[in-house]
Amino acid sequence: MITPPARPRREGGGLAVLVVVTVLAALAAPHARELRGLVAGHLPALRAPAPPGAGPAVGPPSPAAPRAVAFALGQRGKPYRWGAAGPHAFDCSGLTWAAWQAAGVVIPRTAAGQLAGLPRARGRLRPGDLVIYASRGPSRRYVAMVVGRGRMVEAPGRGITVRSTSIRPGWLGAVRPGGGR
Predict the structure, then answer these.
(1) DSSP 13-70
(2) Could you tell me if 81 and 30 lie in one domain?
(3) pLDDT, tens only, 79-107
(4) For position 107, which CATH number holds?
(5) DSSP 167
(6) How far lies 141's CA from each of 93, 131, 161, 172, in Å?
(7) Is 7 within a domain?
(8) What's the pLDDT tens digit per position in 6-37?
(9) How many CB atoms lie under 10 A from the CB of residue 165?
C-alpha cells in the first residue's frame, strides 16, 4: 500500500484568524449598541465624524430645523433640474437652500459652499443637518438633508424626483445650518 506524502502543516493559520477577529471586535466595540440595532432591524442615529483636535460640539439644532425639514419633505415628487431652487423643480443644493430659506435661515447656495461655510455637525446627526457627498457632477459635491432616524430627503439627479431615502454611507461631512458654532 502506497501512502500519499504528508501535507505540510500550516503554522499560524488559526492564530491569524484569531488576531483578525480580535482586532475587528476591538474596532466594533465602541459601536456595539448601533451594530446590535442594525442587526435587530432598527436604524440608530448616526454619528458625524469629529476630526482630531476638533473644538467643542456645535450647539443645539436651530429651532428652524423642523420648518426646514417640513419644507423639504413637502417637495417630494417634484422634478430634478440642475441649477433649480424651486418652486417647481430642484437640484440637490437648491432643495436644501430653499428649505432653509423657507425656515428663515440664510445658507450658501451650493453644496460645496454649504460644506465650507456652515458649522460642522458633531455628535449624532439631527433633522435639518446636511450631509455632503463627493459626486461626478459639475460641482463635485452633492448634498441631502437629514429628516429623521437614518433618513434623508434628496434631489438625486436627472429623471429622479425629490425623494426620501435611507442615509447612504460615505459622506464627506455633515453641517448644521442655524446651529451656531
Answers:
(1) HHHHHHHHHHHHHHHHGGGHHHHHHHHTTPPPPPEEP--TT--SPP-SPPTTHHHHHH
(2) no
(3) 999 999 999 999 999 999 999 999 999 99
(4) 3.90.1720.10
(5) P
(6) 9, 10, 19, 9
(7) no
(8) 655 555 555 555 555 554 555 554 544 444 44
(9) 13
C-alpha span between 129 and 146 (Å, rounded)? 5
Domain encompassing residue 36: 13-42
Provide the domain count of the chain: 2
Helix, strand, coil shares of the chain, percent, nearest 5, are 30, 20, 50
Helix H or strand E segment including 163: strand 163-166
Mind listing the pLDDT tens digit for each residue in 105-151?
999 999 999 999 999 998 899 999 999 999 887 778 999 999 998 99
Report yes or no on 4 lying in a domain.
Answer: no
Cell numbers placing 35: 451594530
Q: How far is CA 34 from CA 110, 123, 177, in A?
A: 32, 14, 26
How many Å apart are CA 42 and CA 80, to the nearest integer?
A: 31
Task: In whole angstroms, give the CA distance from residue 24 to residue 111.
Answer: 34
152 and 170 within one domain: yes
Cis preceding-peptide flag for 56 (omega within 30 of 0): no
Give domain status of residue 139, yes or no. yes
The model scores a pTM over 0.85: no
